[in-house]
Amino acid sequence: METEHGAPLRGLAELAERSAKRTRLVYARTVLKTPGVESDPALRAYFSTKIAREYGDVQILPDVIRAQQGATATPRSKAKDTGASMEMAHVLDTLESERGIGPTAAPSASDGTVSVRAAFAAKPRSESQLESALIGTSDANHAADGQSMLSRALQRKKELARREAQPTPHPQWKLMRVISGHLGWVRCMAVEPNNQWFATGAGDRMIKLWDMASGQLKLSLTGHISTVRGLAISARHPYMFSAGEDKLVKCWDLETNKVVRQYYGHLSGIYALGLHPTLDVVVTAGRDACARVWDIRTKAQVHVLSGHRGTVASVLCQEAEPQVITGSMDATVKLWDLASGRCTNTLTQHKKSVRALALAPHEYTFASGSAGGRNIKRWRCPEGTLLNNMTNEGIVNTLAVNPDGVLFSGTDTGSIRFFDYDTGVPFQSIEDIVQPGSLDAEAGVFCSTFDQTGTRLLTGGADKTIKVYREV
């Protein structure tokens, strides 16, 4: 085969050989034949050190990988190391012959040179020392089995998490007493700070005070013209606060058993009431989709906490930030800054209406309950970080937490469930027993609270009774 000028075409092997020779001549003139490289010991030492530094690590397997592979990989790695060393020696011989250096004796330390071969002849560190430092003496046998350190670390992490998730053992709870006296659904209750008595409010527009020890009725208070939905007893003043669907907030003097102040301003029925533990303010919320902050003494409306798009069904007050927490039928929980009256965070993880909130007395968290899905959630204050989820079948109407880490939840179907608060693991589930003569549909639990010791639980329901539970 010929070209246009009649010259025969050269073979592929001949063309490749010519190209290689030209490339070699170009680089030999510019790099390898640089004047002074062969004669200058400093330049020789520089190039030798650079080669050792850049290519020395790829001669052998890293010690970490060799320790992971164990004894089975040792002969193979040694064979690879021998082959790599022979190949590198051949490259060095070729390089020295092209430079015209030739094999020379090992330079002395006095002339400051470093041999290329000496740089590559360095021995690796002891494998046993590195193996003992990385995986310890007790795990050396596992490394021989070929199990990686990463998988063992993951297994240890899972075992540790499993141990931490073990719930704290709690005693079982048993029904101790059933108290009758209301003529309507029991919608709210509060325990006196000295744990001597407790108060309940119901659909019969009455507020009743009961003796804690005997369960006997001590006093009945009238004044509301609609269902009483919120109660709070002050630990700093001899006052009790009540709120109802009649849009009124009342302050009762417990020494005279009379109303001393009334707070006006809500545009619709009030569904929740919370009393601040250290400030002279009371917070109420209801169907007008906002929470209102009242000054106890002056009856002035300090803030209107607006932002919810539905009925605000629950409200909490605490000393630390956030000082006000609200739960609404729009399926959100809002955290409020009481000083500025602004929302600091909105929690949207619930899928349905939030009807219950409860503060943990033993840690800086709170719980919320809604109507569906994983309907009980635990949050960390002050930012509102979700910690875990719990489930109770039905619409959760009430939550309560005691200092021992027991979370109680009651639903509209009468399902009662006790959880370990820290892990969210349920340890007891029972069904509410309706009062004889009531319908089965009246088994719903609307309100609950623990006494000041945390050993007795009070619940109010649709069968118009108050039930007292205690630890077995």
Describe this structure in words.
- The chain has helices at residues 12-32, 41-55, 63-69, 74-99, 116-120, 127-135, 140-144, 149-164, and strands at residues 173-180, 186-191, 197-202, 207-211, 217-221, 228-233, 239-244, 249-253, 258-263, 270-275, 281-286, 290-295, 301-306, 312-317, 324-328, 333-337, 342-347, 354-359, 365-370, 376-380, 385-390, 396-401, 406-411, 415-420, 425-431, 445-450, 456-461, 465-471.
- By secondary structure, it is of the alpha+beta class.
- It has two domains: 14-124, no CATH class; 173-471, 7 Propeller (Methylamine Dehydrogenase, Chain H).
- α3 (63-69) crosses α6.
- Its main location: nucleus.
- WD repeats lie at residues 179-220, 221-262, 263-304, 305-346.
- Involved in pre-mRNA splicing and required for cell cycle progression at G2/M.
- Associated with the spliceosome.
Summarize the structure.
This protein is α+β, with helices and mostly antiparallel strands. It is built from eight helices and 28 strands.
Architecture blueprint of SSEs:
Elements lengths: L11 H21 L8 H15 L7 H7 L4 H26 L16 H5 L6 H9 L4 H5 L4 H16 L8 E8 L5 E6 L5 E6 L4 E5 L5 E5 L6 E6 L5 E6 L4 E5 L4 E6 L6 E6 L5 E6 L3 E6 L5 E6 L5 E6 L6 E5 L4 E5 L4 E6 L6 E6 L5 E6 L5 E5 L4 E6 L5 E6 L4 E6 L3 E6 L4 E7 L13 E6 L5 E6 L3 E7 L1
Antiparallel strand pairs: 1-28, 2-3, 3-4, 4-5, 6-7, 7-8, 8-9, 10-11, 11-12, 12-13, 14-15, 15-16, 16-17, 18-19, 19-20, 20-21, 22-23, 23-24, 24-25, 26-27, 27-28
Helix pairs in contact: 3-6
Protein name: Pre-mRNA-splicing factor PRP46
Pfam families: WD40
Subcellular location: Nucleus
